[in-house]
Design a protein that fits this description.
alpha+beta; five-stranded antiparallel sheet; 14 helices; 51% helix
Amino acid sequence: MIVARITKKIARIMNIEVNITELKVGHYVVGIANQENNFSLTSSSHIKNQSIIEMLESKGVKTVLIDPNKTIVQAAASSSSKSRDDLTKGIKKAQAVFEQSKVIQQKVFSDALNGVEIDLEPIVDITNQTIDTVFDAPDAIACVINIREKDAYLLEHSIAVSVYISLFARHMALPKHIIEQLAIGAFLHDVGKIMIPDKILNKPGRLTDEEFEVMKSHAAHSIDIIKKTPDISTTSLEVAALHHEKINGYGYPNKVKGDDISLYGRMIAICDIFDALTANRVYKDGFTHHKAFVILRELVKDNHLDNKLVEEFIRCIGAFPVGSLVKLHSNKLAIVDKPNSDDPTKPSVRSFYNVKHKHFVETRDIDLSKSEDFIEKAVRADDFDLDIKKITELLLMAG
């Protein structure tokens, strides 16, 4: 009995008693010092996530003993901070590239409308900058595409498809010189839409059969315009020409079928549809990534898209990309700020909003692979009258 008391006393001297409100992720808890109830720990261990602290507090625990020599909270915080700093720098660079892309795309459409030959040099330069960002900071460029304002669909769609096919091609380990040609072709793939009357191009309702035939003509217009562009590569032309063709042969403009649709043509078809599904329009809200993935798989069943490539694209983009909004089981909204390659359904997130009480809460970083909390579903900021771009800048860029 005496030995036990001495051992316990020594343990208390070596350890530190901290209030439950001061307990942090990374602290090593060796025992409970003060509590309202009779809760007991099964063993000494590190605090792996905030949920454990909340659980202890709910059990009436007031203070705990920690071993300061085993604390890892500082290293974890430093690593998290560096990761977010890197993402912040990447996002700022990607945003600058995206804005510059819109300026160049505007000039492309203007030249095409006025019958002026397209200058390929600035397109090559900006797509190379995009590809550099894809290789250096893929999460950042994907985040920028995900949170863009989407108020200029005609301009932004082609840029987004160029980014998506670059990300996809990198995921598929294609040579960089091929990725460059794919990015250029995607950047130009919808230039023919400038020839479509606005009343059809921006019609909020369903197009009539006659209107749809006019709309489909944009693909042929794009081919004609791109063919006239000096120094355009056959690969860039190919990828643009095939973006509306379907495996079953019922695509347009040339009803190319099956194996006659190249790998690159199959890839851009997926990227084109995915961005069209997820983007906001004047007349419709975009779908969540999850819903868009479901639709892509349905199109596979209808023999529109390549099954293996659709699955690779989904793996490339990820279940919950950086910058996407999710609802947690804890009734919190959170933004994804770090993917998890081992388990894409459990990324690292930053929670900021209480859905039940409809108000912002203190932000909290959660590694879902180490938490009892989990993602219930992907959501849209519009569903809660929130601005996803402002939220992302606040939570990721401002830290």
